[in-house]
């Protein structure tokens, strides 16, 4: 097979169908019609004399040949894109692009307001998709380009996943201002004597504060386990239940509920927050620009949240 006779766009279609798992989503991602994607797939099947993808329900599953082909094709496409990007400087004011960012909901309120203010001002044709990135899939999604970047705690990922520490998160205790037993200067005994709310998407298991208490062989009464910090803070404002949560997010949410914020009554290590991207995007001007915007937004969010943090324990 001679390269001069091959349409390289076919390999872009192949890579996208593989990543998206279907023709419909591939057509949306490439902004092409479904018949155009189907036609390109037909040409690929004829070229390699293999179905490449077979349908199982709503998902297109790659054949063994497609699985062997994907990595060399993907690496070649990424290298070609990097070469082209080195030639063309990224111009956010004129660029038309969609970035996909994996981020946990507790960081959205800290990052997005400042981040989107800058995007709206400097990059009017750039769109942003924020998704919840499952940690077990983070590495593969960054490698596949499904995610451009991700923001999360320190994770054990492969060497080709780059990271940069961008922030740190501590814990705060939230209680309503009229609480009968919780006042500034909350000590450990008073904290443990209260009834607590735990926020977790999981049905069971320890949270960060449970882990810290467990290290000291301490426990507490959990009266409510729910999935959402906003709902939990609303409950706090109406009851004598108390909540332990990330301190910056606590400052943002509780401004509207007028709850009091107090230091967590144990010396705990802050949780470092990292920005992740794939090594193939190191020299990509668009990805580098995106990382810089997120870093600036996180720094602004951290500075703004300092005024809402609970006073240090004495």
Describe this structure in words.
This protein has 314 residues and is of the alpha/beta class. It has 3 domains: 3-87, Orthogonal Bundle (Arc Repressor Mutant, subunit A); 97-167 and 271-306, Periplasmic binding protein-like II (D-Maltodextrin-Binding Protein, domain 2, 3-Layer(aba) Sandwich); 171-263, D-Maltodextrin-Binding Protein, domain 2 (3-Layer(aba) Sandwich), CATH 3.40.190.10. Helices cover 45% and strands 22% of the residues. The protein is built from 11 helices and 12 strands. The strands form 3 sheets. Strands 4-3-5-12-6 form a 5-stranded mixed sheet. Strands 9-8-10-7-11 form a 5-stranded mixed sheet. Strand 8 (195-199), helix 8 and strand 9 (221-226) form a beta-alpha-beta unit. Helix 1 (9-20) crosses helix 2 (23-30) and helix 1 packs across helix 4. The longest helix has 24 residues, at 64-87. The protein is elongated and about 80 Å long. The N and C termini lie far apart (75 Å). 30% of the residues are buried.
């Amino acid at each position: 097979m001679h390269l001069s006779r091959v349409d390289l766009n076919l390999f872009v279609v192949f890579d996208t169908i593989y990543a998206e798992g279907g023709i419909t989503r591939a057509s949306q991602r490439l902004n092409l019609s479904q018949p155009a994607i189907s036609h390109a797939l037909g040409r690929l099947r004829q070229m390699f004399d293999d179905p490449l993808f077979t349908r199982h329900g709503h998902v297109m599953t790659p054949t063994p040949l497609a699985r062997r082909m994907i990595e060399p094709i993907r690496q070649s496409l990424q290298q070609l894109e990097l070469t082209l990007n080195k030639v063309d400087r990224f111009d956010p004011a004129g660029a038309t692009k969609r970035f996909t960012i994996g981020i946990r909901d507790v960081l959205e309120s800290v990052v997005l307001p400042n981040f989107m203010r800058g995007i709206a001002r400097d990059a009017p044709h750039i769109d942003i998709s924020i998704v919840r990135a499952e940690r077990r899939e983070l590495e593969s999604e960054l490698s596949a380009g499904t995610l451009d970047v991700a923001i999360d705690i320190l994770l054990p990922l492969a060497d080709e996943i780059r990271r940069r520490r961008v922030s740190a998160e501590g814990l705060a205790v939230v209680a309503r201002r009229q609480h009968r037993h919780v006042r500034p200067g909350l000590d450990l005994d008073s904290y443990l004597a209260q009834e607590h709310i735990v926020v977790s998407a999981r049905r069971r298991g320890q949270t960060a504060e449970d882990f810290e208490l467990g290290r000291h062989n301490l426990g507490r009464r959990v009266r409510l386990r729910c999935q959402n910090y906003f709902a939990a803070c609303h409950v706090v404002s109406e009851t004598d239940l108390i909540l332990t949560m990330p301190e910056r997010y606590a400052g943002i949410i509780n401004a509207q509920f007028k709850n009091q914020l107090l230091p967590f009554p144990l010396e705990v290590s802050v949780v470092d927050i990292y920005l992740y991207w794939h090594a193939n995007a190191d020299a990509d001007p668009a990805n580098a620009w995106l990382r810089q915007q997120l870093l600036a937004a996180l720094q602004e969010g951290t500075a703004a949240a300092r005024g809402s943090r609970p006073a240090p324990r004495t």
